[in-house]
Amino acid sequence: MLYLDNSATTQIHPEVKDAMLPYLMEEYGNPSSKYYAPAENAKRAVKEARNALASLMGCKENEVLFTSGSTESNNMIIKGVADHYSEKGNHIITTKVEHPSVLETCQYLETKGYDVTYLDVDRFGRIDILDLQKQITEKTILVSVIWGNNELGSLNDMDAISNICLENNVFLHTDATQVVSKIEMDLFNYPGITFLSCSAHKFHGPKGIGAAFIKNDEYELPTKITPLLHGGGQENGFRSGTLAVHNIVGLGKASEIANKNLAENINNLKELEGHLIGLLKEKFRDQIQINSDNTEKIPGIVSVQFKGVNNELLVKNLAPIIAASTGSACSSSKPSHVLAAVGLSIDEVRSTIRFSLSCFIKKEDLDIFKEL
């Protein structure tokens, strides 16, 4: 079977697995303990992983804290900002095409008295920068905009968004789950980004581990938010709970590999995407419509309408030979809210599937489409 659902999750890199195994068996110390060797070894491993992810994203080591993944990071940041800064304002701005962990968190906050603006998007899922600027008020405390769309692959203009939030003294959070390791990223160049979320399993690391970037303030102290989890004070008090050292090591190794091979992997994904689109157009001609843009996008994500074909039946029939999806794995039981927000009809939404590629795929693997 050819696996083309890498936006849902990726296979773990063999080097990541090898790096993790010792911390499941021999190196079982708790990094919060002191003095004895197993604890110090675990502490050192966590520090190295934190540094590896910081290097990949272009931020300071102490601006990275570990979570269970992007869903937790999104919840922690949005709820944490809303609670801590409630006296300054109650207005949050996000978009109609966010991951459910952002949208449903914002909807929850609306039940608590917060005012949420959901920005419209264009046909590729990008916000209008002028619209964002217009919606910011004196009560706005947070803007949360997805960096790269998980269904269409479209990139928002994060440079412009960062500058607008900086100029208006408003916190900016971005769900960067799909872009970490797939675009060149240097957070030092985006001074308006205060918070960011990511997950290891999107770039060949283990499931159940991710991170939140929390930018230091002008005093080199972490920006304050209310913690989602209280308890032992781990992760500078932001996220209590014993650290999953083996998973953190896996995240660190995946970050190291991604950083080392970044340019090569980006070019490879672009080539694979071009080859796949060429095969689809040659095979299906006017029976298909590509939903994704061809510029300013995450390489390796292709959204395709198979006109008049039910996407659930298509994915089911393809399953023995090709793994694909109808959209986000976190909302696969219902029609895509992303595709509806960009203006597709319900019939067009229900005929769309997503192919997402990885560096483990070879060009010749995609020739299976010639046989369909």
Automatic annotation (TrEMBL):
Cofactors named for this entry: pyridoxal 5'-phosphate
Q: Which reaction does it catalyse?
A: (sulfur carrier)-H + L-cysteine = (sulfur carrier)-SH + L-alanine
Q: Is Transmembrane helix one of the keywords?
A: no
Going by the UniProt record, its keywords in alphabetical order are: Iron, Iron-sulfur, Metal-binding, Pyridoxal phosphate, Transferase
Gene Ontology molecular functions: cysteine desulfurase activity; iron-sulfur cluster binding; metal ion binding
Q: Does the keyword Repressor apply?
A: no
Q: Can you tell which superkingdom this protein's organism belongs to? A: Bacteria
Q: Which SUPFAM superfamilies match?
A: PLP-dependent transferases
All copies of the Aminotransferase class V domain together span: 3-369
Enumerate the Pfam families for this protein.
Aminotran_5
Q: Which family does it belong to?
A: Belongs to the class-V pyridoxal-phosphate-dependent aminotransferase family. NifS/IscS subfamily.
Query: This protein is called what?
Result: Cysteine desulfurase
